[in-house]
Amino acid sequence: MRHVALTVNHSEHRLELEPRELLVYVLRERLGLTGTNVGCDTTSCGACTVLIDGESVKSCTVLGVQADGAEITTIEGLAGENGELHPMQAAFHEHHALQCGYCTPGMVMAAVGLVESGRAGSEDEIREGLEGNLCRCTGYHNIVRAVAAVAGRV
Amino acid sequence: MTTTETRTGRYVGAPVKRKEDRALLTGRGRYLDDLTLPGQVFMAVVRSPYGHAKINGIDVVAARAAEGVVAVFTGAELAEDWLGSLPCAWPVTEDIKMPPHFPLATDKARYQGDGVAVVVAESRALAKDAAELVEVDYEPLDATVGLAASLDDGAPLVHDELGTNECYVWKLATDDVEAAIEVADVVVTRRYYQPPLIPNAIEPRGVLAQIGPTSEVTLWSSTQVPHILRFALQLVLGIPESKIRVIAPDVGGGFGSKLDVYAEEALAIALARRLDRPVKWIEERSENSVATIHGRDFDTELTLAATRDGTITAVKADVTAAMGAYLQLVTPGVPLLGAWIYAGPYDIRNYSVTFTGVFTNTTPTDAYRGAGRPEATYVLERTMDALAVELGMDRLELRRQNFISEFPSTIASGLTIDSGDYHASLDELVKRLDLDSLLSEQRRRREAGAVKQLGVGFSTYNEMCGLAPSRILGAIRYAVGGWDSATVRFQPLGSVQVVSGTSPHGQGHETAWSQIVADSLGVDFDEVEVLHGDTAVSQLGMDTYGSRSLPVGGIALVHAAEKVIAKAREIVAHQLEVAGEDLEFDAGTFSVKGSADHSMTIKEASFAAHTAHNLPDGMEPGLEATATYDPPNFSWPGGAHAAVVEVDTETGDTRLIRYVAVDDVGSVVNPQIVDGQVHGGITQGIAAALYEEGIYDEDGNLVTSTMVSYGIPSAADLPSYELARTESPSPTNPLGVKGVGETGTIASAPAVINAVVDALSHLGVTDVQMPATPERVWRTIQEARQ
Questions:
Q1: Tens digits of per-residue pLDDT, B166-190?
Q2: For burial by CB atoms within 10 Å, which of A154, B131, B344, B735 has the most?
Q3: Residue B201, preceding bond cis, omega within 30 degrees?
Q4: What are phi and psi of B207, to 5 degrees?
Q5: Would you say domain A2-76 falls under CATH 2.30.30.40?
Q6: Pick from B28, B202, B684: CB nearest A45
Q7: Interface test with B, best of A49, A137, A144 (most B CBs within 10 A)
């Protein structure tokens, strides 16, 4: 077991982790943050995307122990304290960019990372930037609309 | 008529934002793997790595001794737990061969992924670790893979006791098909193979089973069909349905792959019962690829016969369809779901389809988005283009000349199309496409010998959905009914609960049902709460598949609301001392005709119904009603789609640059949700045309079992879509709705392949096997050049 300290959604946590534990299971099973979903376990689908030190990362690709000292934001930490949706969440709602919702937390986090990194300047850029996040319901059409709407306002 | 929106109420017809979204967007969705019960243990299934192998023995000693292991069982050790086989609800012919299919194999493994043992441990990781320690003595056998080969004499038999791999032969034909083909001026026969597709809902399957204090069973499952699952579980486990509660929590996509009764659902209950602890199982992605049903795998020879002037006189389809290794819930029936539409939107009077179902050493097939109808539409629309070439006719003119144009229309296959306007959809499509400019650009590139050639492909289609009239289902040997139900319940203080018999997994029922009920009762959208996916809450229901929720369940909902209004009317009439027919009901208020200030709201009637202080003699207190609805006909969406592709003739790379769809799905309750369904449906058809293919090697190994090897398209692979609608309300139901879940998938694959072929036709290319991967397109170009 290894001692790990990490900050998740502004809360500090000190954990004893098995070296093989993936970050996504640390979030889901140790911290109870089940908003981050697992779709493939193999870094293909992006459902588990979170922000680590502001950068979008697939949390099934990161070992919990690798996140020692990191600041992590999950979908649960995105809305404002008064419950006001983050602009990206609001845009997904407005543009009907989710159906079953399973890929949505990862997709929203990837989109936030994309816009904040300034790489969402055109439809092509948005589509390329979301390449690592699979959605089976929406055909991406409305997701791209939602991200473009936010990017246009930033 | 071409419209984009028809408003019929305050909410119905409007792009009301979904009430499902907030929870899902903030991480508060409750999917299967988010559920945890005290004392729960994890199940892992040991699966065959071979496509076909005899099981000589299983050594579980090391696994049982491993850290954290609670129990290990082989198939033989659990055999006494099963009252019956996993059910197949659609024995399509009297003499269909239905081999047993128990949750774990005992004698031999019949596909890669067939379960042979289960391990239960204190954690997910420990269960997986111990599963690795189960030693199975397999004797690999030759596998049957490939449709034609499976019927050869001497082919390895999937089920030895059957003596054949042929599962059934099913026919539907009018009298004079062969004669019509014989005398036709022009006959075109084409053969198309549609490979297996792996549905890949982003949420894999999962189950959690708990046995309660009086032996009652609660099963949470990531399923589309909690009601069907409940009665199926009685058949497998011998537990009365009255003791089984099935809950579908938030379900992360299905597309038909969760319309089934799976081994793990029965296993989890059997193990929970044996171990007296809740048992949870969550599928891994590569496990999903082999253990969850596949779609398609159809080999079809299609013949069209026509007069020289382009009147199509006969259609004949000979289909060989893979069942896979076992029959799942509706496996044999999937071809039949397309059996009546091999003439599509065209008036073709001589009609014949023959389906031969075959067993192969592959994952069982079953309903995947469109189920039978994409398969029919693909071969028809590909062959329509081939016939146009043969006749020297414009491909759209050929379609227009043969369109059914009067409705209702009884078609040669025997059913009656409710309504439609195929000309309107195609006209609108051509207008939006700006076809002339595209064709002139195509000419320019051809003349210039450009590396990147342009192709435009079309697909005009119809489909039958809204499954389904129960009598027809009975006549074609489907074992369950096609009705559905809904309950509308006023609470004493005026809020409204709706209980839905259909069970959503992304379609937005909570929003659409609230729109319908809010308009019917004259209450606010936010005052309506929709409950679903729990058989203890919703006793009556036939679940969600086959684009049925709105045209069947939605109509039950309308009827339930009407019953509630009728009872409220009686209460109001009694209290205001007028006759019921003297009351007008509008926007939630009953008013006496000609005396508008003499009125009472339906919420006041609800309060009165619950206090029961002053009700008509004999009236039962409370204000709620349940309605069941059995549709008198299928519903028949239709439309016209076009794909524009750019094909790099040097690399074979195909880029979809435009996709334009004009669909007619009848009246629309929520245009934003309808567009979303079309976007998703189109994408799954495009994926079949360009990217996705389940590939087995000759030993039955699935070589596309990961999301790396199986090419699910990402946002970067696709364009934005251009959608429009024409609207022919269905005359068979009061909402005029038809269903929209599958239209896009049915129409899009042929449009895309027709476009790829169109881009290359001047090079002599007449067909490209789907999916049109760069390698395949490149090889096709090279072969055509030789």
A1: 999 999 999 999 999 999 999 999 9
A2: B344
A3: no
A4: -140, 155
A5: no
A6: B202
A7: A137
Same-fold call for A2-76 versus A87-150: no
Strand B41-47 relative to strand B279-282, pairing = parallel
Structure-token pair, residue B699: 């030993």
Q: Class of the A87-150 domain?
A: mainly alpha
Report the SS3 class of residue B355.
Answer: strand
Residues 6+ apart with CB under 8 A from B785: B763, B764
Kindly give the parts of chain B with pLDDT less than 70. Answer: 1-8
Percent helix, strand, coil in chain B (nearest 5)? 35, 25, 40
Nearest CA in chain A to B123: A29
- Closest chain B CA to residue A29: B34
Using a CB–CB cutoff of 8 Å, tell me whether B698 touches chain A: no
- Planar angle of CA B489, B493, B496, nearest 5 degrees: 30
What one-character DSSP code corresponds to residue B241?
Answer: G
Q: Are the C-beta atoms of A79 and A13 separated by less than 8 Å?
A: no
User: Both tokens of residue B171?
Assistant: 């026919």
DSSP symbol at B37: -
- Would you call A138 and B679 a contact, using CB atoms and an 8 Å cutoff? yes
Contact assignment for B284 to A139 by CB distance below 8 Å? no
The DSSP line for B719-757 is ---EEEEB----TTSTT-B---TTHHHHHHHHHHHHHHH
Contact B295, B367 (CB under 8 A): yes
ipTM of the complex: 0.98
Dig out the tokens for B381 from the structure.
């629309």
**pLDDT in the model for residue A36:** 98
Cβ contacts of A33 on chain B, cutoff 8 Å: 27
Place of tokens 């979008």: A56
Domain boundaries, chain A: 2-76, 87-150
Give the distance from residue A147's alpha carbon to the nearest chain B alpha carbon, in angstroms: 12
Report H helices in B459-508: 470-475
Whole-prediction pTM: 0.97
CA B80 to chain CA centroid, nearest Å: 34
Residues of chain B with Cβ-Cβ distance to A144 below 8 Å are 715, 720
